[in-house]
């Protein structure tokens, strides 16, 4: 019995390797398809956006979080619920701007970059840019326009990975014409 | 500890991207590398890496059938959280692995709808199997066929050296 449970936890851990390795294969393929890193970064962001707009539904269906009342709550939900659910890590929320509209997510470890090293000729590649797109797409579906970028990246020599998120505006819901 | 959903979404995006690139690729490259072969190639590399990790502590395999059983059980559980439902062989190097609820097809349809699209979503997984077998010492050709979703069959033909 104990052996079986050992395999379950192991298989859960290994399952993230499927995602990590697949992501690596994807980035490699993108680098082949496009000549420069900027294009690859853009593509990763776009693909992340497409994933994010769908992922939010999966997230809302599986977690029982209600509507967030302010950006701080949003930040907490992203860090403590969403990241935990999908990537098994809990980043910390820090560096709030005085206006309360900008914060940082600090990831001690980034599962996407297990086994990854950036070669010298790809120094401007933002390897984990998919994450930015995912967050942007997901938040747009809950009526928030947010600017997201990587401030620090362990692949480029920093100690931690830092994602900076800035609230831009609330997106007005457009009701179709003719609806009450 | 990434979630299954993440991999499924990523896979969907990958397929969409590779097929979008198909148009521009056909103009620039001499040889026709099809989208399917690109996806299969990606799966191959991932399969190679994964099998190394999964079999790190596993003792050696007795024979080909033992390897195929491992693929059907441990490997599949690792990837898709379930085993292969049915393994058949002609004992001459051909194996058919049947998965009655293939996780990458469950969101597609429950029957014949979208049948033409299904092969795109199986290419990567065929590569996974081929890559895994390659690093276990078996050269193979892996194809997939779908008659009714979400069930599908992977056919593995071991190539004799």
Q: Report how far the terminal alpha carbons of chain B are from each other.
A: 38 Å
> Overall mean pLDDT score of chain A?
86
Number of strands of chain A: 4
* Principal-axes shape call of chain A: globular
What share of residues of chain B is helical?
A: 40-55%
Descriptive key words:
heterodimer, A: 180 residues, alpha+beta, 4-stranded antiparallel sheet, B: 161 residues, TRAPP_component (chain A)
Describe the structure.
The complex is a heterodimer of chains A (about 180) and B (about 160). Chain A is of the alpha+beta class. In chain A, about 50% of the residues lie in helices and about 15% in strands. Chain A has helices spanning about 1-35, 35-60, 70-85, 130-140, and strands at about 90-95, 100-105, 145-150, 160-170. In chain A, a hairpin with an 8-residue loop joins β3 (about 145-150) and β4 (about 160-170). In chain A, α1 runs antiparallel to α2 and α2 crosses α4. Chain A is globular. Chain B has helices at about 5-30, 35-55, 65-80, 125-135, and strands at about 85-90, 95-100, 140-145, 150-160. Chain B has a four-stranded antiparallel beta sheet, covered by helices on one side. Classes of the chains: A alpha+beta (about 180), B alpha+beta (about 160). Chain B: InterPro entries: NO_sig/Golgi_transp_ligand-bd (IPR024096), TRAPP_component (IPR007194), TRAPPC6/Trs33 (IPR037992). Chain B: Keywords: Endoplasmic reticulum, Golgi apparatus, Neurogenesis. Chain B: Its main location: endoplasmic reticulum. Chain B: This is Trafficking protein particle complex subunit 6B.
Topology:
The complex is a heterodimer of chains A (180) and B (161).
Chain A: H1 2-33, H2 37-62, H3 71-87, E1 92-94, E2 102-107, H4 129-141, E3 144-152, E4 161-170
Helix pairs in contact in A: 1-2, 2-4
Chain B: H1 4-28, H2 35-54, H3 64-80, E1 86-89, E2 94-99, H4 123-135, E3 140-145, E4 152-158
Antiparallel strand pairs in B: 1-2, 2-4, 3-4
